[in-house]
## 1
Amino acid sequence: MAARRPSRTHRTLTRIGIVGLLAAMVAASCAAQPSKAASGFSGTRALADVRKLVAIGPRVAGTPGAAKARDYITEQLKAAGLAVQEQAFDASTPRGSVHMINLLAVIPGIPPPEAPSQVPVQRLIVAGHYDTKLFKEFTFVGANDGGSSAALLVELARALKPRAKTFRDALRPAAFALFADDAYEFDTSAVEKNLRANQGLGLGLLREIKPRLSGLATWTPESVTELLETFAREKSMPNAGGIAQPLRVALTGSSVSPGLGETMAVLGKESTLRRLDRCLSQ
């Protein structure tokens, strides 16, 4: 039987597949207090990866530049303790047939103990491309194209690998990201404890923090964490957990999630504000 060639998008992008990396958001922290980025996903390391990839120059699929990018990504994933597989294929492109190579790094999941042995382990795939688009008119190095997407996946792999005990346990707190802003459910006990208790103290804090979040110009795990810590100091809280838990429940429906800075960065500013409005309107 002939092997099936990988499916292609309209642009036939070379992809990096890292199984289960959505759960990497959990790797940063499941604690109430916002974690420092250095303890999980590091934007500094990811930016360093972008710089390394951009320094290679154009990385058009099928060229030496793409091969150098592939070597760098493979080196970083192996350093994180992951085995890397290559999946080669020939793609039909406007330039003719181009030899392309996917990179796959797999973090195995562990099925629930109650699951029958014949039940396959569920998988999630987070993928991106490490090549750059070909431009004849100018030199295109794709810092915010193949560079940032590849760097994101490499850093997610670093964050997840040492922390994910089981696929199921790692995924559960990150499930909020799979739902639309108006579709995730609220845990009743979490709402009562963190939002409505003490005469609605948590809801009041959310109303106070929302304008500050709306005015935050730079939306990163670090900037969000700094804002929350500043707010906590102004309120004479012992730590940022006093505002983090109400926010966590409002944004995810649960009292357990990844580090709040990472959670809000994944959701993005617009989604975060929409979720806050939804929570406050109920």
## 2
Amino acid sequence: MATGDKYRAHHARSLNDPEGSGPSRPSAIDWTKRWDKVLDAANPPFYRWFAGGELNACHNALDRHVGGGPRRADGADLRSARHQHARRASPIASCATSVATLAGA
């Protein structure tokens, strides 16, 4: 099945069965607290996905790949907010060092 077909199939399933289709992808990231409910539709149109769940976005984007993970040597695509077309590739481990320096760690 082509990538676009997989996306359309998952999208259709998410519309027809949000509770059933929701938990498949979140298992691909680390949660500090697992969600209580996949979709909280108590206050439309303000829906809450993975209500009660907590995660650390920096950990999931960077830290978990550095800690001896299989993607440690993979390239990270770095972009500048100031210079939109400026990009460079850097190993994930090097990117983590830069982030830690910027954060003052």
## 3
Amino acid sequence: MAYRRVRSLGGPDAGPAAFADRLCGLASDADDRLYAAGDRRVVVVAPAGAVLDTWDLPAPALCVAVHEDGTLYAGGEGWIAVLSPSGELVDTWRDRERLGLVTGLAVRGDEVIAADVGGKCLRRFDRGGKFRNDIGKPGRGRGFMVPNRHLDVAFDPAGRIRAPNPGKLRVETYTLDGELVGFFGGYRGPDPAGFAGCCNPTNIAVARDGRIIVTEKAEPRVKIYTPEGRLLEVFGSGDFDLSCKNMDVAIDGRDALVVHPPVDLPDARGLRPPRREPYEPFELPPACAKDFHQFLVLQPHYRPGKPVGYRSSSDILFVEGVHLME
């Protein structure tokens, strides 16, 4: 695969597409629209890049997911909001015990899975908000290890749950009842098929054909695997700011990958804002806020060899994957 830049959307002068404080979550729907959640709202973006709408949320959002029928779910600290396909707030679930810090969401059929960093596990609910069971609860060597206080989740086409376990350096597969039925990755030294560092991968998305897309931090990059865990592609090395972490990723039916690399940009003196956990809001100095939270769009480019990357320290990357021509 190879990639080339097409267009950008966002930045401080982007009107409804601009985020004042933070952009945290991404999702796409059956019609390939993009939903970007941050601040206290969701921005809806058409496949061609035009902003279609903005929807208000009850609190700062950390993640977002879209059901097959267009219902949107957004999560944050202690809550999940349910919005209609037209953006009206339908319900808000509040549960400090089971929704301590929701940093990832996955929805399918009558299932809603919330990645709760507070409980270091996945919480399974029905679409009405009724709790069903925990998945990956810590104990006896099992469960999620999340030293960077971030956990993500996705459904695969078979209805199984795929989730990064950053502290164990792998991607795990669970049934809805919470049975661990497989995993791939692990530490493999310089082999890119595995994962390294304290806690990778951080974020996940699953394509409609079952391919698994994950992002890493330190060094920030993107990897694509087969459903069985065979590495297909690695890109982004050297293209993202080294301080990027917890890069959310979404993929639509066109194979367009969307990556948001959050980073604290330096101000005019070369200084960065104080490092904070991603769920803690902060104000950026005016010089630092320039070009913050942009959308960078890339499309396929038929060129053999390594992917062509574009440095983008605070952009969303739209990446369409294609097979190379011989």
